[in-house]
Amino acid sequence: MSLSRDQLAMRVAQELSDGYYVNLGIGIPTLVANFVPKNMKVMLQSENGLLGMGPFPTEDEIDADLINAGKQTVTMVPGASLFSSADSFAMIRGGHVDLTVLGAFEVDVQGNIASYMIPGKLIKGMGGAMDLVAGADNIIVTMTHASKHGESKLLQKCNLPLTGAECIKKVVTDLAYLEISEGKFWLKERAPGVSVDEIVKLTAGELVVPEVVPEMEF
Amino acid sequence: MSGFNKVIDCYEEALSGLEDGMTIIAGGFGACGVPENLITEVKNLGVRDLTVVSNNCGSDDLGLAVLLEEKQIKKMVASYVGENRLFEQQMMEGEIEVELTPQGTLAEKLRAGGAGIPAFYTATGYNTLVGNGKDVREFNDRKYILEESIIGDFAIVKAWKADTYGNLVYRHTARNFNPMAATAGIVTVVEVEEIVEPGDLNPNEIHTPGIYVDRLIKGTFKKHIEQRTVREG
Q1: How far, CA to CA in Å, does B123 sit from each of B110, B128, B136?
Q2: Does residue A135 sit at the B interface (CB-CB below 8 Å)?
Q3: Could you tell me which residues are beta bridge partners of residue A173?
Q4: Does residue A70 sit at the B interface (CB-CB below 8 Å)?
Q5: Which end is more exposed in chain A, N or C (fewer Cβ atoms within 10 Å of the end residue's Cβ)?
Q6: Contact assessment for residue B121 and residue B147, using Cβ atoms and an 8 Å cutoff
Q7: What is the pTM of this model?
């Protein structure tokens, strides 16, 4: 069985450490906040200008002046701080954020990532993603392993315009956890019940498969 | 207006001097911290062929999107197009020129512009379309591209509180691009929810000093929420 969105977020949450400052992108990455281990404290950075993002507000707490980078209403945790977008990106570009989690359309064996436009079809804009991938050392990409039409998103070379070059080292998909180095994908874990064959079939870029591929544990 | 008093009385005066073909920098992120009434005033003036610099271009019929509807924008410098069909459509059809700019690079272009720094090197965008045609230099074994800073003929800014001298305080994440926008306008026009007397704001807690502000006006704000997300109470 491929992972649900929540399970994907749970697997990513295993990469958190106590005391991490973390930037979570829009979509599945946002869900990671729901699975921070109980014995751990992390501080969530929202690139519009908030460090210490809390959960969604109650109906009474809603404040139009307090949103996250996904434009959702949020709250602040005790100890939060607010700042301008220039300060926010100084944190990001200066390498002060410990972990960045973001989605993608494609990733390739060189660690290139494409996530902001499909020429002729869709233009989202890069928002803060280009800064995040250029500024962070520790980046995890979360996405489905293949498109709805069964086309691999893990490629030998990205087809779409890049968000960043040679910057991605870890990918969690609905089928597998992979690392990228030496111009190859390295299969590290598979989703429970997913066969290595299925992963191989849906990985277009060069993939190194060890003799034993452990199942993810939750 | 006298001395350091920046307060003006009516929106009709706020953008006096704004002409066709000028560059306007607008604060705001999504629908948060947007100078709503000043944007309406740009619309009312009917000026055209504008270059507008802002993180995004409003959404649907909100914020800067009204200027798209009126086709007043010739060129948009922004980081994000999503959730704004009109913007995406006008961009795809080549009706407006769009310079997609990474969010942090955009913030820094404005910060640098306001600080008199004409350009800076950044790793963001190297080896992507953003870096095309830009000067590349290597520092400490890493490649960086040269990005030019931005100043605008006008900057339109939304703050929370101000004193009459134009010292500004922003509220929560409505701060976003507003402080940098305030520094980067040749004429900086600010609208706020409350104006107090000099000395009423704590000098330790002022975000934008009044030196950057040329005109100040008190407005009322709709403060639209794009994604109303709640949890059970």
Answers
A1: 17, 11, 9
A2: yes
A3: A143
A4: yes
A5: N
A6: yes
A7: 0.96
How far B207 CA lies from chain A's nearest CA (Å)?
Answer: 9
Active site residue A61: no
Size of interface A-B (CB pairs under 8 A): 179
Please say whether the beta carbons of A29 and B155 come within 8 A: no
Q: How far is B82 from chain A (nearest CA, A)?
A: 4
| Spatial distance between the Cα atoms of B158 and B169, rounded to a whole number of angstroms | 10
Token pair 């400490």 is found at B140
Å between B230 CA and nearest CA of chain A: 5
Contact A130 B124 (CB under 8 A): yes
Query: Looking at beta carbons, which residues of chain A come within 8 Å of B31?
Result: 64, 71
Q: Which residue of B has its CA nearest to A121?
A: B92
Residue B190: per-residue pLDDT = 98
Q: Six-digit token pair at A66?
A: 């307090």
pLDDT (tens digit, 0 to 9) for every residue of chain A, 218 residues total?
899 999 999 999 999 999 999 999 988 999 999 999 999 999 999 999 999 999 999 999 999 999 999 999 999 999 999 999 999 999 999 999 999 999 999 999 999 999 999 988 888 899 999 999 999 889 999 999 999 999 999 999 999 999 999 999 999 999 999 999 999 999 999 999 999 999 999 999 999 999 999 999 99
ipTM summary value: 0.95
CA B225-B226-B227 angle, 5° bins: 100
Q: Is A80 near chain B, with CB under 8 Å?
A: no
Strands B73-78 and B97-100: parallel
Catalytic annotation, pick one of A15, A47, A198, A217: A47
Contact call for residues A187 and A210 (beta carbons, < 8 A) = yes
- In this structure, are residues B78 and B102 in contact, taking their beta carbons and an 8 Å threshold? no
Query: Which of chain A's residues have a Cβ under 8 Å away from the Cβ of B223?
Result: 64-65
- Contact check, Cβ <8 Å, A125/B56: yes
- Paired tokens of A41: 């404290």
